Prior knowledge:
Elements: E1 6-13, E2 19-32, E3 37-44, E4 50-55, E5 62-65, E6 69-75, E7 78-84, H1 87-101, H2 118-126, H3 140-150, H4 154-166, H5 169-183, H6 186-201, H7 205-211, H8 217-223, H9 236-243, H10 255-274, H11 287-306, H12 308-319, H13 325-342, H14 347-360, H15 362-370, H16 375-391, H17 393-404, H18 413-422, H19 430-442, H20 456-467, H21 469-479, H22 490-509, H23 512-521, H24 523-529, H25 536-551, H26 555-563, H27 568-577, H28 583-598, H29 601-615, H30 623-639, H31 641-655, H32 659-670, H33 693-709, E8 718-721, E9 731-735, E10 785-789, E11 794-797
Antiparallel strand pairs: 1-2, 1-7, 2-3, 3-4, 5-6, 6-7, 8-11, 9-10
Amino acid sequence: MTDTRRRVKVYTLNEERQWDDRxxxxxxxxxxxxxxxTSLLVRAESDGSLLLExxxxxxxxxxxxxxxxxxxxEAENYDLALSFQEKAGCDEIWEKxxxxxxxxxxxxxxxxxxxxxxxxxxxxxxxPGLELPPCELxxxxxxxxxxxxxxxxPLRREKLALAVENEGYIKKLLELFHVCEDLENHEGLHxxxxxxxxxxxxxxxxxxEVMFSEECIMDVIGCxxxxxSLPQPRRHRxxxxxxxxxxxxxxxxxxxxxxxxxxxxxxQYIQDMxxxxxxxxxxxxxxxxxxxxxxxxxxxxxxxxxxxxxxxxLFAQLTDEATDDDKRHELVNFLKExxxxxxxxxxxxxxxxxxxxxxxxxxxxxxxxxxxDDPQVRSAATDxxxxxxxxxxxxxxxxxxxxxxxxxxxxxxxxLIIEHMICDTDPELGGAVQLMGLLRTLVDPENMLATxxxxxxxxxxxxxxxxxMHVLSAPLLANTTEERxxxxxxxxxQLLALILELLTFCVEHHTYHIKNYIINKDILRRVLVLxxxxxxxxxxxxxxxxxxxxxxxxxxxxRYIMRNxxxxxxxxxxxxxxxRYNLMxxxxxxxxxxxxxxxxxxxxxxxxxxxxxxxxxxxxxQTFKGLKLRYEQQRERQDNPKLDSMRSxxxxxxxxxxxxxxxxxxxxxFNTDEDDLEDGEAIVPPSDKMKSDDDLMDPISKFMERRKLxxxxxxxxxxxxxxxxxxxxxxxxxxxxxxKASLTSSSSASLHPGSPGSPGSPGSxxxxxSPGSPGSGAKSPTxxxxxxxxxxxxxxxxxxxxxxxxxxxxxxxxxxxxxxxKSKLSS
Length: 827
């Protein structure tokens, strides 16, 4: 079998019953060994890749539509279509399909769409065809019953469609319609309604082409006016001929294009307004009608796009100052509808469409239109602009950056958009909301491109903050010059809320650009003026702006907040809100809770040092007391770096003891005679470096004095912890009740000086390590601080862990001579 190659587009039907374009290529038919049968193959014309490989199954129903379409289903929810550029190519492939299935190429469908029961199949096989009653006035009821009885059976539906098509039955029915209408025969008109509606449900392209032809379509609509369920007939024809006017804003020279536009409008009207809403079972019966409209729209857009003279005239008249307002209004509405039509196109076609509009100068034209006074024209221009931004924001960004090199800031396209947003006269700000969404799309780094030579994000954001941000923030700065908003009406508050929403988006997605702008222009202080607005939604917007900044944990922002005391309006709003349990209360508490949980040290200290007196009585949540505790822990670590250093060592050595250390300690323990030990004597491993006990005990004494004073605010600080592993020797710091306030320890001059052991040092003693020497032990002459030996139990002063560890103090450390493994320190 010889291959034939024809240019086609491959379409698949998606879940929303819309056709998706899978690409353009050349189709051929041939035997494929892998599929074991004759198959349709489509290879992409761009790179030769395989777009489609579909075996022609003997039982698959293929449909031929509009002379250039072949449609079929390969699975339950997988419909395919080939749209041919030439009718000859479609006929050739159709013959191949019919040849494989053993069908006559003159048919438009090769198989039944649904399997029949055996009885129906046998019954229908026994009758070669379906005979229609003569098309006469007194037989209309019989025809209506025949149509209704044939719809449930796919095979009978197919035979009915063939009979209607072959006998030219539709035109005969429409002749009877004129007779019935002239005679005011309502019964006959009701029967004709049921017959024409049934013919629509036959879902056959050949019948649609007859019904939607110029000579028949208005009569078909007339038949559908006489719904038996309505007391009075509808007046669809009157609307289409008198109310709906076709305006050629630019003369269309192609008669085929003009006829196609008329046909598509009327068919769309039939689908949307005339036909009753289909039931669940009838919806799929109208799939061919959906396809008919879809492919018509694709053709219209393609024909207009190819007519360069038409588009050139359109944009020339749009931007011509001599064009009167009514004419310009019609031109803009046409362009808006043209763009709306393009939304039915597939991505490849839509790319070509918007590229054509861009080359024709649609963005400069929109700039002219947006500068006009007519609000309707501006509204239509905004809709067109939204199509462009949603399709390709990079194209718009590139245009406005090039434009800035030639024009002043005031007349830039993007500044016109911002001004329209600010000056929206709608009380609900519907247009401003739409424009704010477009601006957010334009400044969103997620859809910005990065190339080898340049980064769109860097270039555009630099342009935006230099040329546009002052326009966007102008209403905010103008309204916050004093301690309260200058204007606090609803519409102004809504506008400021929109601006804050966009600025909050910038804080989240932009880096140094927005940071420099906020700090240099003191934006946050101005925004917090809105905390005193009488509109809760605006106060919450300003709070959300500050919360987004704090959430970045950026020290530049934090220093700016502290330097300007910017928590003050927040605390004032919190206190003025009182005990009311509302969104404002919860949002402010959440902000302070974030400081506590994330331990933002600088802001925590700032809040407690400046606002604690105002917040200390808030006890229905533990947030502020927890914040104070965090602050005190920070102060303790700052006042006693040795304690902080000891805490770091404790944590390090607790988990980093190596095997060699354990072996040394064990050997020392088992080689020590218990009887030789006196009370209060400690067995400790040797250390390379040692410090005097005074260095250890003095900061601990100070720490315990402070802890005694703040016993009500802190948890118990003496904890017991058992060391795991094979460690046997251990010691315990025991404090009597009389000695908690002051701990003293005498150290012998003969003790070796040293320092805390390193993680791998045999001299380190796990949890008992401290800034004093873990290798030094002292026999206390008084019971104030008794160090006693107990096997397996270690008691120590435990300090709260901190995320940031400071380096230990290594000053005044001296090397000690190496000691024997069995060294024992005694009094």
